[in-house]
Amino acid sequence: MSADKFVKKSYDYIICGGGTAGLVLAARLSEDPNVSVGVLEAGGNRLNDPLIDGPNLFIQLWDKPEYDWCFKTVPQKGTENRVHGWVRGKVLGGSSAVNYNMFSMASRQDLDNWGELGNKGWSFNELAPYYRKFETYNPPSKILSSKINDKYIDPLLRGGDGPIQVSFCETDFQWQQEVWPPTFINAGYPEPKDPRSGSAIGGFNQLTTVDPKTTRRSYSARAYYEPNSGRPNLSVLTEALVAKIEFDKSGSGNATATGVQFIVNGATHTVKANKEVIVCGGVINSPQILELSGIGSASLLPKVRINVVVDNPNVGENLNDHSATGVSFQVKDDAPTAEVIFRSPEIAQQAMEAYLNHKAGPFTNAPTTSGFASLNIIDPNLSESEKHVKSLVSEYQKSHPNADPAGRDPILAKQILDPKEAITQVVMLSVGADITKAASPPAIFMHDAPGNWITLGVCSTRSFSRGSIHIESSDPTKHPVIDPAYYKHPLDLDLAARGILHIIKLANFEPLHSKLKLDENGNLILHPSFTNGLPKNLEEAKELAAANTVTEYHPIGTCAMLPKEKGGVVDNECKVYGTNNVRVVDASIFPTHVQGNIISLVYAVAEKAADLIKGKTASGANG
User: Fold this and answer.
1) Would I find Flavoprotein among this entry's keywords (predicted)?
2) How far is 62 from 509, CA to CA, in rounded Å?
3) CA 528/CA 525 separation, integer angstroms
C-alpha cells in the first residue's frame, strides 16, 4: 500500500509502531470486522528473510540499518564511560524479529509489584491467562527430552493454541545444553520448577520462540500479522516514520488526538483517527513520539520549539534496563563454540546451507542455557544481607530524595531478600566476548583470541538505577538521548559483583568444569580482554563489573503505568494522562522491571491491552 492510498482512508485505531506489541493489537482489534485499524511502521516488511527466520542468526541483524535502529547511549560513568549500542528492531515485528529468541517468565512477585504500586488488574494471576492466550507450547520429542532435562515444564500452565510457538530445538543439541542443568544441581541449586509457577530458581535449558515445525523464528510479524494480513479492515504501511500525533485541544479539558503525521521518502502525510491513537514504539520511540507531539515536560519541549499540549515531566523518565556482566573462559578444543563459524567463511557458508536447505545445523539452535539465582545462593556468606541491602537503599534515598516518588525501591529491596526471588539471571553463551567493544553489539563477539570460548553472564533481574530518554530536537529522524544510568545505584554494582564471584565458583563444578581449558597451574583461562585477571574479593569484582557490563536489551519504564503524581505517564488502562484517546502499549509502560527476557511479558501486556480497548475483562482472555 502506498502512503497516498493509506491516508485516503480514516481508521478507528491508528497504531504507531508495527513491532512486538503493535501487531498483537492490530490482529486482536481487527478481529471485529466493524473496526478499522491502520498501522504505521518505520521499518520494512521482511517476512521470509532467512536472517530473521534463522533462530541463531540474530547477530547478523545487529547494527544493520535495514533491521536495527542502531541506537547508542551517552557515555556511562558506571561502565568506565563507555557508549553502549542498543539493538532495537526497525522492521515489521520490531525487536521480536532481532532478539536472541530466549523465552522466560516474570516471577509472581514481579507482577504483584505492579498491583501494589496502584495498577489494578495487573497482578500475576490477572496476567496469567494472557500468557496462555498468546502461546503454543511444543513439547520435545522423547529423544530430546532425555537430553534436555525439560522435566521442570508443567504443560498445564502453558498455552496450547496461541499464535507464538515456543519449543526446544530438535535439530542441533549442543554440549552446553547437556552440562548446564547438572552443574547447577552439583553447585547446590534446587531442581527448578516451571517459571509459570511464579518462581524459577535453578539452572535449566529454557524455551525459545522457535516454531519446531518450520524451524523458524516465531515472532509478531509471522504469528500475528501474516495470518491476518488479508483482512480488509487492517492496513499496514511500512517504512513510514511517525512524526507526531495531532491534537485538538479547544477547551480546558484533556487533549483529543485527531490523527497522526508521518514521513515516507521525505514527504509528510497525515492520517485521521476516528477513535484512538495507540503508541507502540517501544521504550525509546514511544516517549520520543509523545514528546514530539507535545506531551512531556514544559521545561524541555519549548527548548526544542515544540508547543506543550500536556505538561507531564514523567515522559521519558524511569528508564530501567537489565545489565549483563560477562566473564569469558577458554574451553577445550573438542568443545565446539561459535568461534568455529565466525572465523571460517567456508564453515559459515556450510552452516547457512544446512539451515536453508535442511533446517539443520548450528543456526537452528538459539541460546537456551539459563538459570536464576537468589541472594542466599549467590552469597550464602552474607550473614547480614537484610541490613546490607536496606542500608544501601536507604543511603541512596537520602542522597536522592526525589528519585523514587512511587516508592518502588523498598518493595524491590524486600523482593531481593526473598529466597524464592532471583537477583540475577545466569546465562552461558557459546562464544567469547570482548566487552570493550560495547558500542557495537556484534563486535563484542567478533574477537580475535585463538581457541574456543564461552561467556558466563550474570544479568540483573530488577535494577535500581533509573535513567531517561528525551528528545533534543523536533526532527523525528534524530535519535533521542539515551541515558540508562548503569550502576548509578550502588546496590546494582554490589549485586553484579557478588554474581561475578558466584559464576567463577560455578565454573569449578562438574560437568561444566571438565569442558574448560586450564593453564599449566590448573587455573581457568580468561579471555585476554580481561586484563586484571579473576577478582579475589568484592572490590575487585566491582571493578570487573564496571569494565565488563553491557545491556541485556531489556529496557523498560519510560512511559510508566503509575499514578501521575508518582511518576506515571499512563493509567492502568494504558491511557496517557491528559488525553482522551491516546494509549501506550509496550515495555515502556512497565512500572518496575521483571526477571529474565521480557518478550513474553510484552505479548501478555499487549493481549490484555487489546481486551481493555475492546471493553472485555480478564475472563475474556481464554476466548
Assistant:
1) yes
2) 34
3) 9
Query: Cell 553491557 belongs to which residue?
Result: 550
How high is the pLDDT of residue 144?
92
For residues 172 and 362, the answer to whether their CB atoms sit within 8 Å is yes
- pLDDT confidence tier of residue 22, bands split at 50, 70 and 90: very high
Residues 113-170: tens digit of each pLDDT:
999 999 999 999 999 999 999 999 999 999 999 888 899 999 999 999 999 999 999 8
Q: Is 393 annotated among the ligand-binding residues?
A: no
Distance CA 614, CA 568 (A): 23
What gap in Å lies between CA 556 and CA 282, rounded to an integer?
8
Cα distance between residue 166 and residue 283, in whole Å: 24
- Do residues 323 and 550 make contact, with C-beta atoms less than 8 angstroms apart? yes
Other Cβ atoms less than 10 A from the Cβ of 266: the count is 6
Read off the pLDDT band of 1 (50, 70, 90).
Answer: confident
Residue 621 has pLDDT above 50, yes or no: no
- The verdict on whether residue 91 carries a ligand-binding annotation is yes
C-alpha cell at 94: 520490531
Question: What is the 8-class DSSP label of residue 422?
Answer: -
Spatial separation of the C-alpha atoms in residues 448 and 452, rounded to whole Å:
11
Count how many residues are written for the chain: 623
Q: In angstroms, rounded to a whole number, what is the distance separating the alpha carbons of residues 378 and 371?
A: 12
> 404, 406, 409, 459: which is closest to 595 by C-alpha?
459
Pairing status of strand 11-16 against strand 267-279: parallel
Grid look-up 566476548 returns 433
Cα–Cα distance list, 112 to 106, 116, 131, 178 (Å)? 10, 6, 15, 34
Extended strands (E) in 111-266: 135-137, 164-166, 202-205, 210-211, 216-217, 234-237, 241-248, 256-264
Tens digits of residue pLDDT in 450-509: 999 999 999 999 999 999 999 999 999 999 999 999 999 999 999 999 999 999 999 999
Q: Yes or no: say if 496 and 546 are a contact pair by the CB < 8 Å rule.
A: no
Q: What is the pLDDT of residues 511-543, one digit of tens each?
A: 999 999 999 999 999 999 998 899 999 999 999
Cα 576 to Cα 293: distance, rounded to the nearest angstrom: 12
Task: State the Cα–Cα distance between residues 558 and 243, nearest whole angstrom.
Answer: 19
CB-based contact 360:367 (threshold 8 Å): no
- Nearest one of 489, 494, 439 to 466, comparing CA atoms: 489
Write the secondary structure of 460-478 as one string of H (helix), E (strand) and C (coil).
ECCCCCCEEEECCCCCCCC
Q: Which residue has the cell 531489556?
A: 554
Distance between CA atoms of residues 494 and 482, nearest Å: 24
Rounded average pLDDT over 270-274:
97
Encode pLDDT of 28-55 as tens digits. 999 999 999 999 999 999 999 999 999 9
Under 8 Å CB-to-CB from 76, ≥6 apart: which residues? 82, 83, 84, 483, 484, 485, 486, 487
Taking 80 as the threshold, does the pLDDT of residue 252 lie above it?
A: no
* Residues linked to residue 260 through DSSP beta bridges, in sequence order: 245, 271
Report pLDDT for 148: 87
DSSP helix, strand, coil percent of the chain (3-state; round to 5): 35, 20, 45
SS3 540: helix
Cell of 44: 520494512
DSSP string, 491-528: HHHHHHHHHHHHHHHHTTSTTTGGGB-B-TTSPBPBPT
